[in-house]
Amino acid sequence: MNRRPGRRFGAWCAGLLLAPVGVVVGCRVADTDGVTPVPQLLAFLPWLLVPTGVALLCALLARWWPGLVCGVAVLGLLAWYLEPYGRTSEPDGPALVTLRVLTSNVQFGRGTPALALRIRDRRPDVVFVEECEYTCQATLEAGFATAYPYRQAVRAAGSHGSLILSRFPLRPTAGVRGTMGMPGAVADVQGHPVRLQLAHPMPPLPEQLGLWRRELGRLRAFAAADPRTPTVLAGDFNATQDHAAFRRILDTGLTDAARLAGHDRAASWPARTASVVGAQIDHVLVSPDFTATGARFLRVAGSDHRALVVDIALHQRG
Question: What is the rounded CA–CA span in Å between residue 135 and residue 133?
Fold first, then answer.
C-alpha cells in the first residue's frame, strides 16, 4: 500500500515531462513550427533527450507501462531527428576555385575588435557581419581597406546594420527586405559569378513569430530565384535545421557548409555555453556547385554568437 503513492507520483512526473516534449516532437513530425513555446524549444531539440530520459526512468520505476511505451517512441523520434536534414551530393565537375567564408554576429558591434583579430588570423575571402552598426562598419572598412576593397552594407544603428567585405569585386543587388539589414551582391570570383546574400531575420520571439516566418520565407524566395548561379547565403538565421521555416530554405537545394564538413550540430549560440549546450543558428548555406572541406566555430569576445568560418570549393557544373 505504501508503494502506490510513490508509483502515482512517478507516473505524474513522467507524464508532466513527456507531454511538452511530445508536443514539440509532434510538431517536428508534422513539419510545422507551431506556436510559442514550440519554436523556441525546437532550437534545442537534441537537449530534449534529457527530460525524455528522466521521464522514461520515472515511468519504469512507477511501472507505468503506457508512459514507458510513449517515452520510448518519443526517444526514438528524437534520435531519428538528430540526423542531418536533407540529402547531399558531390558536384560532378572539377574544382574551379577555393574560398574561405566567415560569418559573425557581433552583437550591436560589441564584438568588432575581436572579430578584426579573427579576420587577420583566418584571412577569409568573404566576410558577412551581422549587427554591425555605424562604428563597427567604420572600424572594419578602415582597418581592412586594402585587404577587402569591396563591400556592401546596410548602414543603420544597433542590430539593423550589416556588412559584407570581399576580396573579390562586387556588383550590388537589392538584397532581401527585412527588419534588420540583409545586403546582397554578386561577386566576381576569378571570373565566376557567385551570388552573396547576408541573412539576419528577426528572432522567433513570442510576439513576432509571424515576422520571423515571413523573413525566413523571403530568404527562401531569394534562394529559389536563381538556381543556375552559384550561391552563398550566410549569416545569423535565428533558426536551426529543426525549424520547418529553415528547412524550406534547404529544400531549394542549398546545403549547410558546416554539415558538409561534419559539424551539423555544433552550437553557435549562446557563445557562453555553446561548448556544452546551445543551438546552431549561424550558417553558411551553399548551392550544389560547392563542396566544403572545413568548418570551425570561433569565440568572438564581446558577442553572444560564435563566428563560423568555412572553406569551400566552387566546382564546374557537370
Answer: 6
CB 43 within 8 Å of CB 243: yes
Burial class of residue 310 (count of CB atoms within 10 Å of its CB; 0-12, 13-18, 19+): buried
10 Å Cβ neighbour count for 89?
7
Taking only the tens place, the pLDDT of each residue in 83-96 is: 999 777 789 899 99
**pLDDT tens digit sequence for 232-278:** 999 999 999 999 999 999 999 999 999 999 999 999 999 999 989 99
